[in-house]
From TrEMBL:
Zn(2+) binds at residues 254, 265, 267. It comes from the Bacteria. The lineage of its organism: Bacteria, Bacillati, Bacillota, Bacilli, Bacillales. GTP binds at residues 249-253, 270, 291-293, 313, 348, 353. One of its GO terms (molecular function) is GTP cyclohydrolase II activity. This is Riboflavin biosynthesis protein RibBA. It catalyses: D-ribulose 5-phosphate = (2S)-2-hydroxy-3-oxobutyl phosphate + formate + H(+); GTP + 4 H2O = 2,5-diamino-6-hydroxy-4-(5-phosphoribosylamino)-pyrimidine + formate + 2 phosphate + 3 H(+). It comes from Staphylococcus felis. Mg(2+) 1 binds at residue 28. Pathway: Cofactor biosynthesis; riboflavin biosynthesis; 2-hydroxy-3-oxobutyl phosphate from D-ribulose 5-phosphate: step 1/1; Cofactor biosynthesis; riboflavin biosynthesis; 5-amino-6-(D-ribitylamino)uracil from GTP: step 1/4. Residues 209-369 form the GTP cyclohydrolase II domain.
Length: 393
């Protein structure tokens, strides 16, 4: 499929057009028509009814829901994706409330300055959805995507969405969505791209501490950062004067390797090599809480159990329902930018770290290999990293 840029989508939305927004393949994997309430034109609802064919809903912020006196549909939400439906509504001046005109009237009333608990009748023919406060960074749903797009266009936090269905009643996916886009001359984006756009433009960390750290490798400065999104704690270990260009190692926390010196992996040895290199040549080690390539410590131990039964480090993660590598490097890029670093020589054997940092505006000048010896316990693990994950070993 051919996707448009987020900037192109924002321009279209602000011009009153709709865009198609796709969520993740491992989620609903569906495309929704999305419009922003403040910018939508008079034909939007009618188009959604005629061509989208899905349920027309209106994502709103919690503040709007509170102002309108709109409560959630159920107290015990068992929806697999936690979609926050409220009680359905019609504008108080509606007749039946079902016509495209009256549904448009209902939707637009949600952003009127005099909005109050008497603006709507309940139930009705429009289904508000309450978005999470942190948007797609908290929940990668169409509700949150719509509200984030509204915010990025400078509009009030309200929009209209409708799933796109084929003529036969099945959900439009893949080629049928591409054909729909081309037939109706619409922009099409993914929630994944929206997440990256927001992460690239928004500072999502705070520096909360800085100390001197004496170690057996020498003395370093240690900075403590906290993520505004999930509260995760991240460290930067610095040697030498900070500058725009630095040697950098991004190290994912590994309790078994870094602390207990497990020989199942090479993490502990890589950290020691990096600390020695930084001590001698100056630079930064970013220590990120990405245990088990992002699946967490206990799940990593469960993966080890499967490896003992014949799985490898990739297939074990997949058997547990995870991708082989869930790590992202937006926080790492933001930590570097906070420290004034824009260009780096990266100490790494992992090509994903190079592309992950470039995606967030960090220039990679050179690669510095991390060379450690294999042992009898991690030989197969190292081979899988090389042959199946593309590590440059």
């Amino acid at each position: 499929m051919q996707f448009d840029s987020i900037d192109e989508a924002l321009k279209a939305l602000k011009n009153g057009e709709m865009v198609i927004v796709l969520d993740d393949e491992n989620r609903e994997n569906e495309g929704d028509l999305v419009a922003i309430t403040e910018w939508m034109n008079d034909d939007t609802i009618n188009f959604m009814t005629k061509y989208g064919r899905g349920l027309i809903c209106t994502p709103i912020s919690q503040d709007i829901a509170n102002q309108a006196g709109i409560s959630v549909m159920v107290q015990n939400n068992t929806d697999p994706h936690g979609t926050a439906f409220t009680v359905s509504i019609d504008h108080v001046e509606s007749t039946t409330g079902i016509s495209a005109f009256e549904r448009t009237q209902t939707v637009r009333a949600l952003i009127e300055p005099h909005l109050n608990a008497h603006t709507f009748n309940q139930p009705g023919h429009i289904f508000p959805l309450i978005g999470k406060e942190k948007g797609v960074l908290e929940r990668r749903g169409h509700t949150e995507a719509t509200l984030d797009l509204a915010k990025l266009t400078g509009a009030q936090p309200a929009g209209v969405i409708c799933e796109i269905m084929n003529d036969d009643g099945t959900m439009a996916k893949g080629e049928s969505l591409q054909a729909f886009k081309e037939e109706h001359h619409l922009k099409m984006i993914t929630i994944e791209a929206l997440v990256k756009h927001i992460k690239a433009q928004t500072f999502l960390i705070t520096q909360d501490a800085k100390i001197k750290l004496p170690t057996r490798f020498g003395e370093f400065d240690m900075y403590g950062f906290t993520s505004k999104v999930d509260g995760s704690e991240n460290l930067a270990i610095v040697k030498g004067q900070l500058s725009e260009e630095m040697n950098v190692r991004i190290h994912s926390a590994c309790a078994t390797g870094d602390i207990f010196h497990s020989q199942r992996c090479d993490c502990g040895e890589q950290l020691e090599v990096a600390m020695s290199y930084i001590q001698e040549n100056d630079g930064i080690i970013l220590y990120l809480p990405q245990e088990g390539r992002g699946i967490g410590l206990i799940n990593k131990l469960k993966a080890y159990e499967l490896i003992e039964q014949g799985y490898n480090t990739v297939t074990a993660n997949e058997a547990l329902g995870f991708e082989p590598d869930l790590r992202e490097y937006d926080i790492a890029a933001q930590m570097l930018k906070h420290l004034g670093v824009r260009k780096i020589n990266l100490l790494s054997n992992n090509p994903e770290k190079f592309s992950g940092l470039r995606d967030y505006g960090i220039e990679i000048l050179d690669r510095i290999p991390i060379i450690v010896d294999n042992n009898t316990h991690n030989h197969d693990y190292m081979n899988v990293k090389k042959t199946q994950m593309g590590h440059m070993l």
